[in-house]
Amino acid sequence: RWQKIFMFPLWSKMAVFWNKMFLTIIVLLIVLFLDAVREVRKYSSVHVNEKAANVNSSAFDHIQMKLFRSQRNLYLSGFSLFLWLVLRRTVTLLTQLAKEMASHAALETQVNDATEAAKKYMAENERLQEALSGKGDSKKKESTDATEEKLKEEVERLKAELQKTSNAFHKAKTEGAAVKKQSEGLRREYEHLMKEFEQLQQRLNKAEDKKDL
C-alpha cells in the first residue's frame, strides 16, 4: 500500500525541490534562532540595568515582557530547528530501510530461482546416470561422461552462485535489521523530545497566564 502511495508522480516532482526547500527552512530557522539569542541577551542586560536603577514599574514590566517573549522565541526556534533535523534524519532512515527491504525481496527471489535451477539440473543428472548405467557402448559412455562433466560443472557453477546470493541475502538482512534498530531508537528519542517540548510549552503557557494576571 505504501509503495503504491509513494509511486505517485507528485512525489517525484517534489523530490527535485526537496533539498532546496530543506536548506531554505534550515537557514530560516537558524536566522530566527540567532535573532532570538540576540534579543535575549539584549533584554537580559537591559532588565538587570533597569532593575538596579529602580525605574517605574510600568517600564520594568514592559522590559520583562520583552524578555519573556524573546526567551519564548528562543525556545520555539531552537526546538523547531532540532526537530526539523530529526525529521530529516527519520526520512533518510526510512528511505534506507525501504531500499533494504526491496533488495531483500529481490535477493530472496534470486535465491529461490537458483535453488530450483540447481535441483532441476541435479534431477536431470540422476536420470541420465540411471538411463546410461546399463549400456556398455564405449562411445555412449564417452558422450555420457562428457554430458555428466558438463552437468557437474553447471551444478558447481549454480552452487557457487547460490552461495554468493545467499551471502548477499544475509548481508542485506543484517543491514536492514541495523537500520530498523536505528530507526526505532530515533523514534524513541523523537517521542522523548516531544514530551519535553510539551512540558516547556505548558510552562510557557503558565508563565503567560501569570503575566496576564
UniProtKB/TrEMBL annotation:
Superkingdom of the organism of origin: Eukaryota
Domain Bap31/Bap29 cytoplasmic coiled-coil: 153-212
GO biological process annotation, one example: apoptotic process
Protein's cellular compartments: Endoplasmic reticulum membrane
GO cellular component: endoplasmic reticulum membrane
Topology relative to the membrane: Multi-pass membrane protein
InterPro entries assigned: BAP29/BAP31, BAP29/BAP31_N, Bap31/Bap29_C
Membrane-spanning segments: 74-91
UniProt region (Disordered), positions on chain: 129-154, 164-183
Domain BAP29/BAP31 transmembrane: 1-106
Biased composition (Basic and acidic residues): 136-154
Keyword annotations: Apoptosis, Coiled coil, Endoplasmic reticulum, ER-Golgi transport, Membrane, Protein transport, Transmembrane, Transmembrane helix, Transport
Family: Belongs to the BCAP29/BCAP31 family.
Function: May play a role in anterograde transport of membrane proteins from the endoplasmic reticulum to the Golgi.
PANTHER family (alphabetical): B-CELL RECEPTOR-ASSOCIATED PROTEIN 29 (PTHR12701:SF5), BCR-ASSOCIATED PROTEIN, BAP (PTHR12701)
Name listed for the protein in its UniProt record: Endoplasmic reticulum transmembrane protein
Gene name for this UniProt entry: Bcap29
